[in-house]
Amino acid sequence: MNRRQFLATSSLLMRADAAPAAVRRYHVCLAPDILERSPELIQVARAAGVGTIWLAGFLYGHWYYTPERIGAMAKKIRTAGMDAEVIFVPLGHPGDSLGSKQGEPPLIPPPHWRQCVHADGSKHWGTSLHAPAIQENATALRRLDGLGFRTLFLDDDFRLATGPGGIGGCFCNEHWQAFAQVHGYRAGVREQIAADAKARILSPQLRAWVEYQCNELTAGFRTLQRARPDMRVGNMVMYLGSEKAGIRLSDYAGVPMRVGELMFSDRHFDPVKGKTDELFSALFHRRFVTPELAFSESTAFPADQLSAANLAAKLAVSTLSDVRNTMFMSGLTPFPATHWQTLGPAMKQQAAIHAQVAGHRPAGAWKHYWGEHSRYVGDDKPFSLFLAAGVPFEVCDSLPGEGWTFLSDADAAAQLQATGTELVTRGKVPETLDGIFAFKRSIRDRLAAVPHIEEEEPAVCSWLPSASRVLVWNLGRERRELTVRYRERRIRVSAGALELVLVEL
Fold first, then answer.
1. 208-223 pLDDT, tens per residue?
2. The CATH classification of domain 3-169+215-264+290-357, taken from the options 2.10.109.10, 3.20.20.80, 3.20.20.60, 3.40.630.30
3. Residue 415 gets which letter from DSSP?
4. 161: left (phi over 0), alpha (psi -120 to 50) or beta
């Protein structure tokens, strides 16, 4: 960004109305070297409404940015009137998830760390818990003493699966022998667990394996908490991250948690289902974290592959999920500085809407449910498109006693016993807009008691009865005139492209 662009952006953002600070807070993760080269980004982010800059710290065994360098940048950020915190990448990713255009830092841990072994004997770096990874992260955490950091986030490589949908765990001899000794398993069970994982069969042996991985990861997290009891340690959970990735979500209650999202480029976010998958994951993870401790994964990756309009549209996911903290991320390369011209006004608009609905829970006839089989052995491909049908929904921890509950393939295959709700699977209703809208037409008379959108246009309708309001998120790329029907009332709503609109009932 040159001086002229910087002044223009800052002027635009300063003119925007101030956002309510008590509810929605904005954060951005940046590398120290980026801020050294472009110090004006601190003021640009601050003018947009960002209150905290998170600095990249210890990276899977490497102090690529030394504690002294990180501390010096944190001091500059605080002098500018903002908070500074730090993020570790504790284990490493199987691929390049940092996007450093200079080819540095190194993409794998140091040689004295050990690789993960898959069931078939293949290996990869990262997402495994061999010594001394946790011990060196704990030592690194202690080296931050005196630098003023109050919170540390563990990046989402703090998991034991290579990616969404994977069933994690290291099958090296050391891990297998420790696991087998705990459960008294003999030869042959190892191959059976590998076969069950491949077939996604939740057998007692595979359940024991998944729980063992959760115990391992949680123990590592507790070690890091003990390393610096004066700091809060938070977990950045990947898209639909749960037990099969070693993440027993209930173990992270009471700590900062980033709700996992995935659609980091226009190619993935543009489709309607990309947006509903994103919202589905955020709603699922919100079952386990309070709004005040919840952070979004408002990520662009690679940094220039998500447009400013789509990155701004992601803010609606947090408002709909009552996620109070928006975390902008893009690896070690910042997204284009001109994005802030779009983001600043959008951030303030979302904060104003969020202030009116914070703390109110969505309710509705259609049920959002992600069950045990999805969490332990599912492929992380949720039946999410129902969220785009303009029918209000609510998030359920267990099967409800009424309404319609949409099931993933893993939960459908588990032959769950309905308790008064009608189970909807892809075998019954195709997960297409045509299929969803046809189903909506077939039950329209039974929706009279809840506010819903009459038109068959892709839009999210979130009903907050305790606030007497509805949130309507237009998922289209053009303005739409929509009608919210509630009993005998018909309320006209004009929603711009990707716009979230607050409607009073």
1. 999 999 999 999 999 9
2. 3.20.20.80
3. T
4. beta
